[in-house]
Every structure is written in structure tokens, then in C-alpha cells.
Amino acid sequence: MERRAFRLNGFAVMIGLLVLGGALAAAGLAIGVEVLAGAAILWGVIFVIMATGFTVINPNEAKVVQFLGRYVGSVNDAGFQWVAPLTTKQRVTLRVRNFETAKLKVNDADGNPVDIAAVVVYKVVDTARAAFSVDDYEEYVAIQSEAAVRHLATSHPYDSHVEGRTSLRDGAEVAEELTAELRERTGLAGVEVLEARITHLAYAPEIAQAMLVRQQAAQVVAARAHIVEGAVGMVGLALDRLSEQGVVELDEERKAQMVSNLLVVLCGDRATQPVVNAGSLYA
User: Fold this and answer.
1) Which strands sit side by side in the sheet containing 54-57, from one edge to the other?
2) How far is the CA of 220 from the CAs of 2, 217, 224, 225, in angstroms?
3) Distance CA 76, CA 81 (A)
4) CB 80 within 8 A of CB 158
């Protein structure tokens, strides 16, 4: 939708107007005083009309040019420019912008209330759409960002307990999904979302303590499982080495006793006290 508007260097046009004024003044002086007055009035009218086309454009900025309500084009060349006279010029920034959404309370995919917020980085890539497709593209991006964050939070759980299921804590995957959704939502306004990431994620205060206990329990179970797995491997290795080197011959009952003792030593969370058996195992 965006197109380039006709433009000329403003300094060149200004010099041209001064040269025209000098030529009209010289012609008026050569012909007569009455002609000089008419030439001055004519040059004044031309200068006033032409002056309405002057505009200053800053770096990373564009001007959307309209003539009597009709879109003429956009100019994004920085400097002192001249466009068609009697036109209106709307400023649109092309700088990269960012904002952080408010902290939203949303129920995640498991129904748990969570507080979530995100930061969105974007820029205008189509000035015509940004100016005419929506009333205020900044407000439009802000509202669509909050809607996308809510949709993201309701689509995934805070913490996944199933392998292969994406959770809100999976930063890279969630950020990619949020960015893709926002690009689709804001393309209508001529805006490109460069990046969107979650900046705040926590359980709502009313369930935070209960969820903390649950997470701690899950971590304890996972740690115990890892300890037991390592202990079983070490016991198996010890029995195999004793059998290979022929250090001692153990029957099934002695092996069971040895396995029990090793597992107690390796899996216990407290220091063990050794007990010296002076008699026989079968006594």
C-alpha cells in the first residue's frame, strides 16, 4: 500500500524561487514601476503556495503526504525536502520501539491462575497502513499484545509434567510462538514485531505457596530417583568386581544382605554408623 511521493531537495527549490523572484524584479525594472509591483505580487503568491510544500524529515522518520484527503505517497529521505504544495503531512516514526505489557492474571492450560507480562519490540514498515488502517497504531499494538499474551497463557501450562509438552517456562519456544502470533495480528497496521518475550511469570499469590511445595516435592522425588539409579549401578558393579576377582564367594543370602547394606549407605540422607559383626551371618 505504501508508495513514494514526489519530492525535491528543499534547498534547490528555495534557490529556484529566489532566482525567479530576481528575474521578475529585473523584468519589472526594465519595463516599468507598475509591472514591477505586479511581478512582486505574482512572486509573493507563488512563494506562499510553494512554501506549503517544504518539510523537514528527521532520521528514521517518514511523512505521509495527503492532498485534499487523497493519499499521495510517503517520504522518508532525511533532510529539508519539498513535496507537492497544499498538502498535509503526517509524521510517522520508523524507529524501533518497545513496551512492556501490564501484569495480567490469566488461568493457564491446567486452570491455575498465573501472573504474566511480556515485552514487545516492533517498528513501522508500512507508513500508509500505520496511518490509515487503524486509528492509532501504538494503541492497536498494545491491545493486540495483551490479547496475544492472554491467548498464549491459556494455551500452555505454567509447568509441564508431561514430556514433549511445551510450558510457559520454555523461554525460546514460547517467545517464538508469541512473536509469530503478534506478527500475524499487527501486519494489518503496517507494523513488524521483531521480538516478543515473557518478562514476568509467576503463580498468582493465592496459590503460590501450594505450588512451591509441589515443585519442591517434585524436585525431591527426581533427586531420589537419580540417587537410587546411581546406587543400583554401583551395587551391581561391586558384585561383578568381587565375582570377577574371586575376592569372596557369596551365596544368594549374603548377596542380598550386602545389597541391602550398600543401598542403605548410598541412598541414606544421613551419615551411617558402621557395625562390626563378630559372629556368623547364620548365627
Assistant:
1) 7-9, 79-83, 54-57
2) 59, 5, 6, 9
3) 10
4) no
What is the per-residue pLDDT across 118-153, written as a single tens digit (0 to 9) for each?
999 999 999 999 999 899 999 999 999 999 999 999
DSSP SS3 for 247: coil
C-beta of residue 114 within 8 angstroms of C-beta of residue 200: no
Q: Contact, 232 vs 240, CB < 8 A?
A: no
Q: Whole-prediction pTM value? A: 0.69
Q: What is the pLDDT of residues 51-87, one digit of tens each?
A: 899 999 999 999 999 998 899 999 988 999 999 898 9
Q: Please say whether the beta carbons of 180 and 132 come within 8 A.
A: no
Closest CA to 118 of 140, 148, 95: 148
Q: Which residue has the cell 525536502?
A: 81
Q: What is the rounded distance in angstroms from the CA atom of residue 22 to the CA atom of residue 28?
A: 10
Written as nine digits, the cell of 199 is 518478562
Sign, CA torsion 283/277/257/264: positive
Per the listing, cell 512473536 goes with 179
Return the H-helix or E-strand segment holding 117. strand 113-124
Distance between CA atoms of 3 and 126, rounded to whole angstroms?
9
Rounded distance between C-alpha atoms, residue 280 and residue 283, angstroms: 5
Residue pair 51/18 in contact (Cβ under 8 Å)? The answer is: no
**Phi and psi of 55, rounded to 5°?**
-155, 150
Q: What angle do CA 267, 269, 271 make, to 5 degrees?
A: 100
DSSP letter at 84 equals -
116 φ/ψ angles, rounded to the nearest 5 degrees: -140, 145
Provide CB contacts within 8 A for 144, sequence distance 6+. Answer: 182, 185, 186
Residue among 105, 106, 101, 74 nearest 90 (CA): 74
DSSP secondary structure letter of residue 277: -
